[in-house]
Specification:
Distance between the termini of chain D: 46 Å
Shape of chain D: flat
Largest sheet of chain B: 2 strands, antiparallel
CATH architecture of chain D: Up-down Bundle
Number of domains of chain D: 1
Number of helices of chain B: 14
Distance between the termini of chain B: 53 Å
Radius of gyration of chain D: 26 Å
Helix content of chain D: 55-70%
Oligomer: heteropentamer
CATH topology of chain D: Methane Monooxygenase Hydroxylase, Chain G, domain 1
Structural class of chain D: mainly alpha
Strand content of chain B: 5-15%
Order of helices and strands of chain D: HHH
Structural class of chain B: mainly alpha
Chains: A mainly alpha, B mainly alpha, C mainly alpha, D mainly alpha, E mainly alpha
Radius of gyration of chain B: 22 Å
Chain lengths: ~180, ~375, ~110, ~120, ~650
């Protein structure tokens, strides 16, 4: 019962915050709402038992990425956006409709799909890996099975660190010196 | 509520307990302010507040009254919502992160067990780091919401500084995590009982004259952690965010009255987190040096003839006092350093963070891992 | 199979539907907003939505791989945000413009 | 994890803060607009300069970006650090140690490059 | 240490050196760069020695250390592992590559210290060693080909190292393009072998080689090996693809020593020895190999007679000596070919480094007409060069003597040899003695013709040490494979070389004609005497000062002219192949291309254009529109999946 209350509460928070991300006309409000969403998602991870991932979500997304967004927005100093949304009623309608249909379809697929999953579960018991010492099993999987991805991400981060520095050096545009 | 107890009684107690911890934190702030003022006066050969009440203690009350009677000011240029929201958000991350630090042994009465902390989080360190990293929003919101150049610049500086030192802080903790093999703060404290014992290289070495504290395993880590903690809480010598000469008062230039006070609570809260964490990581937490929790419990039972429950309660109280001794000493060091050291220049600050502390924290990590690895692989 | 109340028993599909809703909102943001940075934020929202379903699958299939994937997604998302914002900043410094429609006119 | 407790105390502190602010507003009263200058932002007493283009160095944002990238690399070390002893006990020690040494080498190279390329210079 | 680890270190050490130097290529700290590079190769050398000791310790039939690191390519039945193997053949090669390589690296520190791109230079050199090791150790033709191309690339980079000089850049290009011709044939050879035998692994190929010799010219083994040999003529500078090697002397001299004398150019010989059972099964190919080798040996030697550039003389000498090696493997004397490969690596590397020392002393001057009498300025260089000279002219008991005479004897006595091949070889040896003596005389002996403003000086210790080491090797290197005949008189020295290689060398199926020891003594004496006489003649001509250009040109008339112009081969290539090709291409373009192909393509392109302009209306540059299309696509797919 408490699980349900928590889930519905968090769902409400994340959805409301997410809506305000796309509806607020001031980008700074959008960014702060997105930070709120991130915190909500982190709490959702906790309800799913992924404690470490929840912490990482807080540190990386809420504590780092969104701070960067907010800093950049303040750097730009865009107090009011003249026009927050795209023009064009027809394309707008198509866009909203496509998003709506997509959402409907996905929800439909989920309801169909989870039934299939449950049916499959009924026939074959899912191999019970221990799920308790969560961080430990995560570490084992990350460093024994997925070690290549881990190293590759290290290289990716290095490349991006070099690239962003180079980008911020250039005066913008491709013809930096004209 | 999840994991806040099973019976309504436990839930009620736990809820009241969290509120109590919060109020305790809030109450500590005026006292610290008073200590800071008196202490700085002694350091600088002045009197400090000494008119109202004994030793000027009632000055706190007078300040509170002054804060309450200030008029509520919002600058025209600012953003009203962010301006009001910022001080409220300043309270939240600091208090919540502090509540995850255990302050004493769990209180066990009959079948019920109460933790002497807001709540226990099994990935404690990650949780505290995550929550306290949210503090950057407060600063940015305040700086932006004020609509003032000084405030915005102060906010940017403060955010960049916090963010830079978070790296060194986070990296210095890696060595601690490696040493204890856990994220859980209570487990860390449990690992620091008794006398210093080092196991590895196929033998066990015990130094009876030293307590089994983390600072002896991680001296370099402790140093880096302590220094970064100063920067994280924007204290001198790292209080660049509010360098009076350039930025007036930094991101809270436009604030006054109670809202200002709330920023203060947040700032002192970060100081308390740093002290609490330092005590937990490196100074054995609530452990009494050279003893184990069980040992103290047995001693209490035999010496004073207490029942098991009574000894439990006494044990908790004793450890709580021990924790507070360490905690308050560390807070005093914070205050003392503030009034002793001069301020860095901004470039010096950034250089220190990125080019000195981060490499040293890296070196500490590598060294720790090599030692642990070698200790397990080779035997003498 | 006993009838379960969807309000009180939280299962996999609850998380998946929530994820789908958040994803659609992110997509709507990408389609409708004009500010480049809000666009990037909407993409982050979509990635978060996907992360929810990863963790939910991880939990309900008893397989830790889902969390590993989330870890990787977070890294990639952060990298994407870093590069995206670096681009946005260097364009903004040059043209003082963050409107997405403005970039139609950019040429190599 | 006591999620319920955390959410409860968060809401409690939020309400507490709002109450405090309203209390202060009630006891102190709203600021009376006695002059236009009073409601201006503080700029050392001189009349407010028109805020055209507050120059904030791009350095701040660059620092934040580099912070993100390095922060993630540090976060990657956490599960490794917490499981390191168990890895050693299970015999995977040398492999995991080696893989982290490679990762750290990449990290150190990145840091060295940033320092060398003067991306972290504040003048 | 396990041999997998040793092989891994052996391979990766130069690569790490390459990375270390390559990443800081702007640095001009020649001590650091040189130490890194030399250290990296030296580590490899130590690994090679350890591997060699493992091999020696193993029983004779189990001397093969393999390391399969991972599966590289797996397409259907076609599988190639990143597998490396150290056996009797490749162990010799890695010792030469890393041993001589480290000496040359050491020499380079002194030679290149004034150069701006010194770090880049060392990075390339290490990359070369890495690729050469892959070439040598790879257990399949494809792995070998990776190294084959890699060394080609490094050769190109190093020949054109001073690329700001157009001629030098062009030399690099020439080398690369000429090599491409050979490489194409090499690839075709691989196709044929894979098509016929179903594998590219060289051990499997050798096991699958036909047991009866192929008489036909169109047999799989014959065609495949012939194509591989054409590839080898490119890499190893044989007729007709030898033209790039003399030009390759544009690179720094240590590069010429390492790549264009000691290691890379011998890759073709190595490849043939490696696949010797396959070649043995194809007598026609072997005949071609032997003839090409003999022609190259004589022709390059004659050109060498007329050159004046010190490095050009050595370059033609290298081509000629490579011809000897091919002659050896062509008549089935694989052991002798490998032996000459090794001794040549010693003395030719020595002479190139010596010439480098001379050039260094002469402040960059390479023309022998401006040298002479350098003996008194460069005592160490002169002495070591003298050792190399004695080795190359085949002075008895020097290393070149054993290998060269073994080749000459085999070219006569082998079942696939003939007296003509012996004659060609003997002429080549005589000419070799002549032009090498000429080189010595012009450079070191006689009167000094050094311009006044040049002050020759002996090179620093770091450059003379490699010279001394290589000189010692050039002198004693031959005793590892003393022929039975001579060994009798030297206290019964066994022929270690032949014993070592015996398990991996396939003996020729034909019965050898009976030969007597007297014949062998007679032939040996003849060739040695001829060489000594020609050396003496050359000495007299060129130390007396009579050997001026004009005098010799007048004496030999038109022959001199032809030889001096290198038989007009370059001109023939341009006149016979390249220019007609360009012209015919132009004709093709003007008539067929414009009228036929272009018309067809225009129709197609118009259609594409139409489709494109239709598609362009969707490509507005509006990112959100694109996102919408993606979204719509997802909707369609999802609908389809759900409705199914």
């Amino acid at each position: 019962m408490t699980d349900a209350i928590l889930f519905w509460f968090l769902a409400l928070v994340t959805v409301c915050a997410g809506l305000s991300v796309i509806l607020m006309s001031n980008p700074i409000y959008s960014a702060l709402s997105l930070a709120m969403t991130m915190v909500g998602v982190s709490a959702l991870f906790v309800t799913l038992g992924a404690y470490f991932i929840a912490g990482v979500q807080l540190i990386v997304y809420a504590g780092a990425v969104m701070v960067l967004f907010v800093m950049v927005l303040m750097l730009f100093d865009l107090k009011h956006e003249i026009q927050a949304f795209t023009r064009g009623k027809i394309t707008g309608a198509i866009k909203i409709a496509s998003v709506g249909i997509l959402a409907g379809l996905v929800v439909g697929a989920i309801t169909l799909g989870t039934k299939a999953i449950e049916a499959a579960k009924a026939t074959e018991a899912v191999a019970g890996k221990t799920y308790d010492n969560n961080t430990m099993s995560l570490a084992q999987n990350l460093f024994l099975q997925n070690v290549f991805g881990f190293e590759a991400l290290g290289v990716l981060l290095l490349v991006i660190a070099v690239g962003t520095v180079a980008l911020s050096r250039s005066r913008g545009g491709t013809h930096a010196r004209d | 509520m999840m994991n806040m107890g099973t019976t309504p009684f436990e839930i009620t107690i736990n809820v009241i307990k969290t509120i109590l911890v919060f109020l305790m934190m809030v109450q500590l702030v005026p006292i610290l302010v008073w200590v800071e003022r008196r202490g700085s006066a002694f350091i600088q050969n002045r009197f400090g507040p000494n008119r109202i009440g004994p030793l000027g203690l009632l000055q706190l009350l007078a300040d509170a009254v002054k804060f309450l009677t200030k008029e509520d000011f919002v600058p025209d240029k600012g953003n009203k919502y962010l301006f009001y929201a910022a001080p409220i958000f300043a309270l939240i991350p600091a208090s919540i992160a502090y509540m995850a630090i255990p302050m004493s042994t769990p209180l066990i009465v009959g079948d019920s067990k109460f933790l002497i902390q807001g709540f226990e989080v099994n990935v404690g360190i990650v949780f505290i780091l995550g929550v306290s990293s949210l503090a950057a929003y407060t600063i940015l919101m305040a700086g932006w919401g004020s609509g003032s150049k000084f405030a915005l610049m102060g906010a940017m500086r403060a955010a960049a500084q916090i963010v830079s030192y978070e790296l060194a802080l986070g990296l210095s903790i890696v060595g601690v995590i490696m040493t204890y093999g856990t994220f859980n703060l209570s487990d860390m404290i449990a690992a620091q009982q008794g006398a210093l014992t080092f196991t590895g290289f196929g033998s066990t070495f015990t130094a009876h004259f030293l307590p089994n504290w983390g600072i002896f395993y991680q001296p370099l880590g402790a140093l880096i952690f302590f220094a970064s903690a100063f920067a994280e809480s924007n204290r001198l010598p790292f209080d660049l965010a509010e360098g009076e000469a350039e930025l007036v008062a930094g991101f809270h230039t436009e604030y006054g009255g109670f809202k200002m006070l709330m920023f203060f609570i947040g700032e002192y809260g970060h100081m308390m987190i740093a002290s609490g964490l330092f005590a937990t990581f490196f100074l054995g937490g609530y452990n009494i040096p050279y003893t184990t929790v069980q040992g103290v419990h047995d001693w209490l039972m035999t010496t004073f003839g207490l029942s098991v429950d009574g000894a439990n309660i006494a044990n908790t109280v004793v450890h709580f006092l021990m924790y507070n001794v360490k905690f308050l000493i560390l807070l005093w060091i914070f205050i003392h350093v503030r009034w002793t050291l001069p301020r860095f220049r901004y470039d010096q600050l950034m250089d220190l963070g990125w080019k000195t502390m981060l490499p040293w924290a890296l070196a500490n990590t590598i060294l720790t891992s090599i030692v642990i690895f070698a200790a397990s692989q080779f035997a003498f | 199979m006993p009838e379960t109340n969807i309000l009180t028993t939280i299962g996999l599909e609850h998380y998946l539907v929530l994820s789908a809703v958040l994803f659609s909102m992110g997509m709507a943001g990408v389609l409708l907003r004009r500010n480049l940075i809000v666009l990037l934020m909407s993409i982050e929202l979509m990635l978060n939505a996907v992360n929810i379903s990863f963790v939910a699958f991880s939990k309900f299939n008893n397989n830790i791989e889902g969390q590993i994937m989330v870890f990787f997604v977070m890294t990639i998302a952060a990298a994407e945000a870093a590069v995206g914002l670096a681009l946005a900043v260097s364009i903004f410094k040059r043209f003082k413009e963050v409107n997405i429609r403005f970039f139609e006119h950019l040429k190599g | 994890m006591p999620l319920g407790g955390i959410i409860f105390i968060t809401l409690f502190i939020g309400v507490f803060g709002v109450i405090l602010i309203y209390l202060a507003r009630w006891t102190g009263g709203r600021a009376k607009r006695t002059s236009a200058a009073k409601m201006e932002i503080y700029e050392c007493g001189i009349p407010e300069q028109e805020k055209k283009d507050t120059k904030i160095s791009v350095k701040f944002y660059l620092t934040a970006i580099l912070f993100i990238l390095f922060d993630i690399e540090i976060i990657f070390m956490y599960p490794w650090a917490v499981g390191f002893r168990e890895f050693i006990h299970s015999g995977a020690g040398p492999f995991v140690f080696g893989s982290m040494i490679i990762f750290l080498a990449i990290f150190i190279f990145g840091l060295w490059w940033e320092i060398k390329s003067k991306a972290l210079e504040w003048d | 240490m396990s041999h997998q680890a040793l092989i891994a270190i052996l391979l990766l050490s130069p690569f790490v050196g390459f990375l270390l130097n390559g990443l800081r290529y702007r640095s001009q700290n020649y001590v650091l760069a040189g130490s890194i590079a030399t250290g990296a190769v030296f580590v490899s050398f130590i690994c090679s020695v350890m591997l060699m000791m493992d091999l020696i310790a193993a029983p004779a039939d189990q001397r093969r250390l393999t390391a399969n690191f991972f599966e590289w390519i797996a397409v259907g039945g076609f599988k190639v592992n990143a597998g490396f193997v150290v056996d009797q053949i490749s162990s010799i090669m890695i010792l030469i590559i890393t041993g001589v390589g480290s000496l040359i690296h050491l020499f380079s520190i002194g030679y290149m210290h004034h150069d701006k791109g010194v770090t880049k230079y060392f990075a390339y050199l290490n990359l070369f060693v890495f690729n050469m090791l892959i070439l040598v150790l790879g257990d399949s033709l494809l792995t070998m080909f990776v190294g084959w191309e890699g060394v080609g690339l490094c050769s190109y980079l190093l020949i054109g190292f001073w690329f700001s000089d157009a001629a030098k850049a062009a030399a690099g290009m020439k080398a690369f393009i000429t090599n491409r011709v050979g490489d194409a044939a090499f690839i075709i050879g691989m196709f044929i072998l894979f098509f016929s035998f179903g594998t590219l692994n060289m051990y499997e190929l050798n096991a699958l080689a036909p047991t009866t010799v192929e008489a036909s010219w169109l047999g799989a083994a014959t065609l495949g090996t012939l194509m591989l040999f054409i590839g080898a003529t490119g890499k190893s500078a044989q007729v007709p693809l030898y033209v790039w090697l003399p030009d390759a002397m544009a690179g720094p001299t240590p590069v010429s020593a390492l790549i264009h004398a000691a290691t890379m150019v011998t890759a073709g010989v190595y490849m043939i020895v490696r696949l010797n059972p396959m070649f043995v099964a194809a007598p026609n190919t072997m005949m071609i190999v032997a003839i090409v080798g003999a022609i190259t040996a004589v022709m390059a030697a004659t050109i060498g007679l007329t050159q004046y550039d010190i490095k050009k003389i050595l370059a033609y000498s290298t081509v000629s000596q490579l011809g000897y090696m091919f002659l050896a493997v062509g008549v089935g004397a694989f052991g002798a070919g490998m032996m000459h490969l090794m001794t040549h690596a010693f003395f030719k590397a020595l002479m190139f480094l010596g010439s480098g020392s001379v050039i260094h002393a002469m402040e960059g001057e390479q023309d022998t007409r401006l040298m002479g009498g350098l003996k008194k300025y460069l005592p160490i260089t002169h002495f070591t060069f003298l050792m190399g000279w004695l080795a190359i002219i085949g002075f008895p008991l020097f290393s070149g003597f054993f290998s060269k005479d073994e080749i000459l004897w085999q070219s006569f006595a082998s079942p696939r040899g003939s007296v003509f091949l012996w004659v060609a070889g003997a002429i080549g040896a005589t000419l070799t003695a002549f032009y090498m003596t000429r080189l010595m005389a012009l450079t070191f002996w006689g009167k000094s013709r050094v311009p006044k403003e040049v002050h020759p000086h002996e090179s620093p210790v770091i450059m003379t040490i490699p010279l001394i080491v290589l000189a010692i090797l050039s002198v004693v290197g031959g005793f590892i494979g003393v022929p039975h005949l001579i060994g009798e008189y030297l206290g019964h020295i066994p022929n270690y070389w032949a014993e070592w290689l015996a398990p991996v060398i396939k003996t020729l199926p034909e019965a050898a004609a009976p030969h007597t020891a007297t014949q062998e003594w007679a032939l040996m004496t003849t060739s040695v005497t001829l060489a000594l006489i020609s050396a003496f003649v050359a000495y007299r001509i060129y130390t007396s000062g009579k050997g001026t250009n004009e005098a010799i040109a007048k004496a030999f008339g038109p022959v001199y002219n032809v030889v001096n112009n290198k038989y007009f081969v370059d001109e023939a290539y341009f006149g016979g192949i390249i220019n007609p090709l360009v012209k015919q291409s132009q004709n093709l373009w003007m008539y067929i291309d414009v009228n036929f192909i272009d018309k067809t393509t225009h129709v197609i392109s118009d259609m594409t254009k139409g489709a494109g302009s239709l598609a362009r209306s969707f490509q507005t540059g509006n990112m959100q529109q694109y996102a919408m299309y993606i979204g719509l696509g997802v909707v369609v797919v999802l609908t389809f999946v759900l409705m199914r």
